[in-house]
């Protein structure tokens, strides 16, 4: 941890609150999480079609494309997301389709570009934090993905956690076998999971203005466990 | 802390609102302090509180042979603790009087404060402010009172008192207190301190845990919690105290926090219980999910030694109960010891050829007291076994009382824990004997397994914290 990192995070939060928001965009959330030491899939913002082709070379196919516009919160609903892009041709076609669709559905949208993300697959986990009215900040770890609220295979601890707490959290899941890898899916390095849990705990401990956050999904891939989506909510500033 | 201590070791007690009218709270409280209260236990409070007792009531001259004072100021010597049982509107002035007379601690039994709504809450706050001004600590209001068995003090309006013993209990429900006292008679549970904590306006769970930590009589802390006043403070205190003394907690009210402002997955999954569950685990507090678990775990932890390892043996005279107990043991993560050749050989010598030859050790329905005795000795002394769950299904051959005698003798020599179920038998001499000797005997085998589980969890915690 260098000295600048917490400052950069505080600055990010201050800017968000100044603009009258409490919810960080994916891009903002991701930046904060990366500064805290959480690994993410490779990504970059393309402002033109040519940009996109160059960027794709760095990220590698297949990849995911997402519209970036402050006015567009629900990207899928405006045709702003395309997945499994496998070649330069598909990339160019998708780029133009996304822009056209977004412009048609939200004519006054200020389009900042298109986010290209490495497409990863594997077992989906979740790490999140929330604020309990009595106990304050707590951290959650569990099996993630879209059914997280159905199965609720999760474990909670109060923040801050120790490495011992983090290890216990890993061992408490019903679906703990998924962490080791089943049916050919890659398994997770428990040490790395513990590190990520500790990083998230530290982030919230250092920044109690964080009300809630999700890293969902966090994917167990062949090259380690990496976050794919992030969401941070701040407390309303006290006036 | 000094003022907290004066609740449990006062040199003198005043009862504000003492009454001579039978059935009134002020009458029951003063008589309980003077005479103690009925109990069927050998080691119960006998003869009541030995320090000075000052009944206060402006309208009376004498109650139960004691001089009654018009007010605190009339009392010639120092008063440590006061018990208040007058109607709510007079409580604030009573506390002002206590402050001026140097009272250190007050138990407010009177109800009608924050539990009734906003108006009551306001009065409770005023009372609290007055007490703070004089550095007085308050238990209650809206409670049954407190019992300190080693100080011979029963300052409650209950009709019974538990025997002395190693458990200290704090309950947010007064009704539960009286029920637990009844239960304690049957199971021979002994208590050091017994606190109905009421509205927790001042003294809360954390303060009491802190006191029990230093109380030499307390070996196990038992809590019934509905809500916490300062949850984080509780967490930090419990985490520290539990390193020296086990804490078992029952938290009631699995209600979801309604209308929690949330838009994250994490927030929507976290009901109100998730934080309690997390806090208990992280602090090392053993959580009881039912009242029977609360009793069984507290009993085991208060009276039985902590095992050195996690391997148990189940000793039974019938197959069914053995399987049932084994299932429960697996589901709680207990390990059934694999019997060594040596143990097998020794059991072969004392059992008929058709004994189970594995753990659970089924020594067959015609098992006599001497076969139980031999087998239990072998298991309790076996290196691969850290604790024994003994089951007994009554048959025509069963000599339960003699088996109980042998269990106690063997237990005393080994230093390993044992929990017992004489299945289906209730309140018989054999069980009373076991209970009175600190061996948890429970009529349901699953509960005997849970009691052993509590001991195993304690062992795992102590090992994790490198305390054993």
Largest pleated sheet of chain A = 6 strands, antiparallel
Number of distinct helices of chain A: 8
Give the largest interface: A-B, 31 and 26 residues
CATH superfamily of the largest domain in chain A: ATP-grasp fold, B domain
Low-confidence region ranges of chain A: none
CATH level 3 topology of the largest domain in chain B: Rossmann fold
Beta strand % of chain A: 25-35%
Number of strands of chain A: 10
Q: Strand order within the widest sheet of chain B? A: 9-8-11-10-12-13-14
CATH domain class of the largest domain in chain B? Alpha Beta
General shape of chain B: elongated
The biggest beta sheet of chain B, please?
A: 7 strands, mixed
Portion in helices of chain B: 40-55%
What is the percentage of strand-forming residues of chain B? Answer: 15-25%
| CATH C-level class of the largest domain in chain A | Alpha Beta
Number of helices of chain B: 16
Overall pLDDT of chain A: 91
Kindly give the count of domains of chain A: 2
Name the shape of chain A in a single word: globular
CATH topology of the largest domain in chain A: D-amino Acid Aminotransferase, Chain A, domain 1
The SSE string of chain A, one letter per element, is HHEHEEHEEEHEHHHEEE
